[in-house]
Amino acid sequence: MRLFNSMTVATRLSLTTALVLGLLLAVLYTGYSALGSVALQAKQFAALAADAQQSMLVMAVLALVLGVVSTISQVRSISRPLADAIHIAETVAAGDLSHDFENTRGGEFGRLLDAMGTMEDTLTDLVTQIKDSTEPLTASSADIVQSSSDLLQHTQVQADALNATTSSMTELTATVQENAQRAQSASALAVSASSTAQRGGEVVGEVVQTMHAITDSSRKVVDIIAVIEGISFQTNILALNAAVEAARAGEQGRGFAVVASEVRSLAGRSADAAKEIRQLISHSAEQVDAGSQLVGRAGATMQDIVTAVRQVTDLLGEISAASAQQSQSVLQVSQAVVHMQAETRHNTEQVGHTATAATAMSERVRELQSAVDQFKV
Which range of residues forms the domain containing residue 216? Predict the structure, then answer.
């Protein structure tokens, strides 16, 4: 019996069918053999033939009944496990993985039911793991979508700010270059003004020297006037002495007295003229001294102007150099901003692609979640 149970379904069905057919053939063979013998002795064994026919019919009926019973038994032994297997498959197909199926059968159908039960358990574990994984994945994908959206907005704002900065940098670059050109022009004008002021300082120096020469000449003229005054005074004395001597001479010295009087008058006028000239020369000398002082102060002022212009020229030169360097720096910054603008535009596109991919991933996760939710574990 154990050997029979351990056989496969096909083997058992084949053996049962062969057994039924063998019995049926044996009965038929026996019946026909008996009929042949009875035919030879028909008259002698009429009763025996009738009994043999009845026995043959009974045995045939019994064999047929046995075959039918065996066939029904085999069909039921096959249909019940198949019905259980179909029930398990339909339950799993409906998404219900919450049932535990117990199998007490052996053989191939028992192994089939065990395999289907193992499959259900494996599917249950797999669906549970997928559910446990999709729940945080859904939250993470939502966070990624939100973060990508926020990042896209911030990147767009940054791109707009960089566009404005680029425009401002372009204007600033033009302004700085214009200032650099103006600084160069101002530096050139300052150099020219410094040269002019230096020449003016030299001219003022020459004027100062000329005024000093005039002052020296005035002093010499004053000395000459003093000599003239001395001569006039001496001439006046001599004329006075001549008049005294002419008066003593009487009639003979009258003509000489007239000449002495004219000489004395001339000496007086010369003294008066020399005195006026001395006053004029003194006044001129004072004016020349005042002019010399003014020219000296003008020379000092001009020297200060020359120094200031030279300092301004140096400052303008430094400003021009700084403006040129600033122009170069602003140009580099403008180029860097343009490069940043290009990179930001590229980043914006990449963030847009990332946001699109994150949205698509979120949709796929929701679809996966919906598909997994169809299973009942």
Answer: 147-352
